[in-house]
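re: ur msg from earlier - yeah i can do the nicotinamide-adenine-dinucleotide complex, just paste it... oh wait u already did. ok heres what im feeding in:
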Amino acid sequence: MNTYNIAALAGDGIGPEVMREAIKVLRATEKRFNFKLIITDAPVGWAGIDFAKKALPDKTLAICKASDSILFGSVGLPDRDPTIPKEERPERAALLRLRKEFGLFANLRPVKLPKVLAHACPLAKERQGDGIDILVVRELTGGMYFGQPKKTEDLGGGNQRAIDTMVYTTPEIERIAHVAFKAAQLRRKKLTSIDKANVLENGILWREVVTRVGKQYPDVALDHMFVDNGAMQLMLKPTQFDVLLCENMFGDILSDEAAALGGSLGMLPSASLGATNGNQTFGFYEPAGGTAPDIAGKDLANPIAQILSAALMLRHSFGLNEAAAAIESAVEHAIESGHRTGDIYSASEPNARRVGTRAMGDAIAAVM
Ligand code: NAD
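and the outut:
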C-alpha cells in the first residue's frame, strides 16, 4: 500500500475547524482507495508564536521538510499584537518563508461554480451556462515580482524613479507550461495562454515557448489571448475557458478575478507546486481565503475550500486522480442535496438546508 507523509498546518482563525473536516474526509478516502496518510499536525502563524515565539517554529519547518506535502489552513489575525514587526508577522514569516523554502513555482487555482449555486455568483445567470469550471495556472517565482533591478532611485529635485523588471527564461516558462498542459489533460483538454505579446518582449518569448511545449501535448487544444482581452472575456463568457496559463503578475490579477465567479472564498482551494521527484511532486495546499476572524470558532466556516485543497494534494502530489475526483464529486453531492454553510445559503432555494462546518464535513465524509 502506498504511504504518504503529510504536514497539517492548521494555523489561526477558522484554520483548525476547516482542517479537522478535511482530515475527516481524507480518512474516509484512504479507506476507500487503499492508500495510507501519515498526518503530523504542527503549529504555524499565531499558533506558532504562542508555541515557540515564531510564526514558523523550527520544529514545524522540520516536520514540513520530512513530509511529502503540506496541507495548510490560513494564518494571520489582524487584531493580535500590532507591535510585532511586519517581517515577523505570520503572513510574511510563515507563508512567504514556506513558499521560498520549498521552491513553489506553480500556483493552481480552480474555480468551480455548480449550477445550483448560481445565486452566489456576481454574473447574470445567462452568462454562467451550465456552471463555471476554470483552472488558473499561475507562475509564482518569476516575472515582475522578483526580477532585478528592483529599486527606487532618487533623481534629485524631489523626484524619484521606481524600477521593476520583468524577466523570464525559457526553462521557467517551459516548466510552468508543462504543469498547465498536464492539468489540461486531466480536464477538458483546452489551454488558453495569457500574455501581452503585442507589447512585451516577455510576452513574445512566453508565446513562443508555450507554443513549442504544446507540440508535446497534441491532445490539448492551445490558444493565446492578450491579458486585457482575457480579463474582459472572464466576465463576458467564462464558460469558454478550461485552463488559463499566466505569468506571475497577470495570474495574480486574473486568479482573483476568476475567484469572484466562484461564489464564495469558502469554496476555493489552491495548490502551489514545487519540484517533482520520481512520481511525487512536493506541494503546498491551502484554501484561497484567509482566517476569517469574523466567523472563527462558531461552526460557521465553509470547510469545502480546505477539503478541495486536500483533493488537489491527492491529484497533483501523489497522482491519486480517482480519489481526488471522488472527493470532488462527494462535495458536489453534498451541495446538490442541499447542504449550505452560511456563505452559500440563500433563502430563495427551496431545498437548501443551513448547516455548520462540522455537519458539512460529515455530509461529504459520509458520501466517501
Ligand atoms: P478572509 O479571507 O479571512 O475573509 C474575508 C471574508 O470571507 C470574511 O467575511 C470571511 O468570513 C469570509 N470567508 C473566508 N473564508 C471563509 C470560509 N471558509 N467560509 C465562510 N466564509 C469565509 O480575509 P481577511 O478578513 O481580509 O483576512 C483575515 C486574516 O487572514 C488576515 O490576517 C489576513 O492577512 C489573513 N489571510 C491569510 C491568508 C493565508 O493564510 N493564505 C490569505 C488571506 C488572508
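cool cool. The longest strand covers residues 3-11. ping me if u need the other ligands too
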